[in-house]
Amino acid sequence: MKLTILISCPDQAGIISSVTQFLFLKNGNIVYLDQHVDKEAGVFFMRLESEFTNGISLTSFRTDFEHNIANEYQMEWSIYEDGIKPKMAIFVSKYNHCLYDLLSRYNSGELEVEIPFILSNHDDLSYVAAQFEIPYFYVPFTKDIRSEAEQEQLKLLAEHQIDFIVLARYMQIVSPTIINVYPHKIINIHHSFLPAFAGAKPYHAAFKRGVKIIGATSHYVTEELDAGPIIEQDVATVSHSHSIKDFIAKGRDLEKIVLSRAVHLHVARKTIVYNNKTVIFS
Amino acid sequence: MKLTILISCPDQAGIISSVTQFLFLKNGNIVYLDQHVDKEAGVFFMRLESEFTNGISLTSFRTDFEHNIANEYQMEWSIYEDGIKPKMAIFVSKYNHCLYDLLSRYNSGELEVEIPFILSNHDDLSYVAAQFEIPYFYVPFTKDIRSEAEQEQLKLLAEHQIDFIVLARYMQIVSPTIINVYPHKIINIHHSFLPAFAGAKPYHAAFKRGVKIIGATSHYVTEELDAGPIIEQDVATVSHSHSIKDFIAKGRDLEKIVLSRAVHLHVARKTIVYNNKTVIFS
Amino acid sequence: MKLTILISCPDQAGIISSVTQFLFLKNGNIVYLDQHVDKEAGVFFMRLESEFTNGISLTSFRTDFEHNIANEYQMEWSIYEDGIKPKMAIFVSKYNHCLYDLLSRYNSGELEVEIPFILSNHDDLSYVAAQFEIPYFYVPFTKDIRSEAEQEQLKLLAEHQIDFIVLARYMQIVSPTIINVYPHKIINIHHSFLPAFAGAKPYHAAFKRGVKIIGATSHYVTEELDAGPIIEQDVATVSHSHSIKDFIAKGRDLEKIVLSRAVHLHVARKTIVYNNKTVIFS
Amino acid sequence: MKLTILISCPDQAGIISSVTQFLFLKNGNIVYLDQHVDKEAGVFFMRLESEFTNGISLTSFRTDFEHNIANEYQMEWSIYEDGIKPKMAIFVSKYNHCLYDLLSRYNSGELEVEIPFILSNHDDLSYVAAQFEIPYFYVPFTKDIRSEAEQEQLKLLAEHQIDFIVLARYMQIVSPTIINVYPHKIINIHHSFLPAFAGAKPYHAAFKRGVKIIGATSHYVTEELDAGPIIEQDVATVSHSHSIKDFIAKGRDLEKIVLSRAVHLHVARKTIVYNNKTVIFS
């Protein structure tokens, strides 16, 4: 069995020693350890992967960890067992490139998740869902019916025991009604190099400003639009010879890559959020 | 002899044909031609390099070009003779990395300019100027003496017949008094990926926002701070493990590279400004 | 109507002038012109796009161009009418990532081609073809039956009037029997930064050498393995912490991007091959 | 006081726990810990930084570490005290760009080394050494006088107690006579993306091959030419429009950046060599 352990706590001497000693006594073999200290904030972060050749009880392991280690150091912590696939819902609108990219990776076995359903405020992409034989729920969304639509969304998320949501170019603002149920568990792709060009039509804004590089940003969704903790960013060069249409075409490739990397990091439990920023373990 | 010709004018059919025909009749051999049309704005841009084996009179060439070509198409145009080095003034404050980089390139013959002087609002970097045997003028600058300082600057610029100014991390705002004398002839390096983090302390702002990529931007100085036409940008990846000090260290390398590229482009007459953007010929 | 014209010929004065004059007299409006001179080789290259508001006869245009321009300058040239989609065959083996990527782009209308069929030496990926409703031909290929297999391939290519072939991780060497029918019309993706690590298992070789950057290369197929004219390359950083499996996963994204860019360039008629190199117009 | 500890040893359970426990008992506060396991080779690597508020004796610390930890796990290890600047010699020939770059960083305090001297097989760059007031030794080097020249080099290196050597475009092959005295302590910059284009004139070879990306590689010097453990690499895009001269100009910037990064990593004790590869701690 293999466990992945994520820890954050107030920084002090002895944490690494205590945790590694605990694992050693449990007959664990540490195959990965990375830590980070934010000195200004005084916070310690650690991610470990430990293999156990003998069978161990996950429940008693958790209890022992809490009593012997976590309480002493006031840790926020989580322990994940390897090989359990999280359930990921995908929200889309009309653009298909990120959806195709995620489903191709899923179908190849590259992306280790279950995808119980795809949800959209439009019917346009149901054909893609059909190609990959995944349920597609069409939930119309306008200001007038926001509340009903959100209740419908929450019902679907609950029924399918969704662990996290990916907004694969979902062109609606997700409200606190949903965010509060999935704190730091909704991943968005924004088609600009944030914080530049937040909000609508970033490629048009980038074109108008005459930038020489465009970008894409994947972040956890928080109440403030396009202002959540950044998980991953990437860029591509452009020039005066590129039209807005060219920006959009180049941007599609960026969006696909950046979103898929962020999803991979989330699924591999390599992200910790604090102070509206992320620690990303490599 | 070799001439470089820059043209912009309202777009219409026949411009390329007319210009290339004109050069052919002057016994010119076109060794470089690049053009661009901004369809939305309806503006045509072209850059040509033409070699002439026979001696030609530059004065009569200019006159003929104006009468036979430029007037007909309502061109803005400029013609430069190869091998004449522009005079470049460097303004600095306390950071030496961009200054060292420019002077090293100058000393190697890589940067084909003359540098009549370095000007600073501090005395700190006079030792670098001394290393490279270039005059260093210390012109203090505070709000109270702004007007006198600017007159002193203008006097030095005029006396030395400066063609363009490079702000190599000059930590003062350049006012319209200077800008109007050097329109699109003052090159600044800003230590962020504009338009993100304009203004003071961009590395601190980037760190606080938790970005995964930092950047540097070189642009022509206009009245609005950090909002002039962008010439060149580049980026570098960062992570949670990097401190603000690391951002600054990584940024220094970006700043040097981006500024030197922008200066090269300007010196090679590869930039045209319009609509607060640049056309950069490759 | 819009035409794209590709030209290469011995360099001499007057070519641009003659060609643009010719187009002007045909009432063409040049919307794109880029040229390049390889001074060492003494070869001139040009790509033009010209719009014609009046109807013109493509046949007589070609004839006139040949007689009035091409013959005089000993040009190799081709003229393409806009909006005619070339027919592209895709060859695959067992990896699906490049295939999924190309078909997603095709399905979105991003890739302006027809795809009459997918061909493979294995039956593994027929399900992908089925998802996108494209014919899939399984043509087994071993040394013993090479000749029969190649005849079968040529028959399929001819029947479907294929214009060019994309090897989307096709793990067989394509022999001169096919190459000679499709000179500079077979696009391969090699999973290394050529010329480093040509041949089999480049990720393993890169891992063993301890490189800090891996790459992918798209090139036209020639008789010498992995030595054809390079169309496009890109790279990604790696570190000691990445396993060969990580190299392969990172490489998949590179391969998809680099191959699709090369296909885009080919389809847009932006490539000219000479001296086993490419001119790539931007 | 702050210590940096580098460890490599056969992989087994309990190493991290033992080392961190040891440091905890010495009242050390671990401010950095990164580890890596090469599973195939069965080797464990770790780098730690630990602060000690109480004064400790470095000599007894080393002895205790050896007896209590290192011997048990058969470690190769080294312990460095913070704030002691290593002595770096720079070898150059005729190109000044890497030399200027290193000296500028040194003069700014960015590069925490001492530079007792610059050595060259030509007299060309003595003026740069003079600008920065560093001794410059001109040691001519030809096949006929190789042995004498190497003895002269070794004498200078010994007299100045040099810790490591940087070949900043030193255009001579360094022989085992020198390498054996400085194993994995001679850093070279090669102007290609190794293993592509090893040996002489890599830009010419890259140009001939028609690559779309060029690179630079910094590595530790071993007996086989350009085949030592790679420390750092970076790349830049090129196109058909770039001449060999352009490749060289673009390459200069790559060389400067890549070499300076490698020197930084070495000085910060962030490199471990094994199996002709490097572990580079971030």
From TrEMBL, chains A, B, C, D:
HAMAP family cross-referenced by the UniProt entry: PurU (MF_01927)
Record family assignment: Belongs to the PurU family.
Matches recorded under PROSITE patterns: ACT (PS51671)
Keyword Hydrolase in record: yes
Pathway: Purine metabolism; IMP biosynthesis via de novo pathway; formate from 10-formyl-5,6,7,8-tetrahydrofolate: step 1/1
Active site: D226
One GO MF term: formyltetrahydrofolate deformylase activity
Catalyzed reactions per annotation: (6R)-10-formyltetrahydrofolate + H2O = (6S)-5,6,7,8-tetrahydrofolate + formate + H(+)
Every ACT domain range: 4-86
UniProt keywords, alphabetically: Hydrolase, One-carbon metabolism, Purine biosynthesis
EC id: 3.5.1.10
Function: Catalyzes the hydrolysis of 10-formyltetrahydrofolate (formyl-FH4) to formate and tetrahydrofolate (FH4).
Protein name per Swiss-Prot or TrEMBL: Formyltetrahydrofolate deformylase
Coiled coil spans: none
PANTHER family (UniProt xref): FORMYLTETRAHYDROFOLATE DEFORMYLASE (PTHR42706), FORMYLTETRAHYDROFOLATE DEFORMYLASE 2, MITOCHONDRIAL (PTHR42706:SF1)
Cross-referenced Gene3D superfamilies: 3.30.70.260, Formyl transferase, N-terminal domain (3.40.50.170)
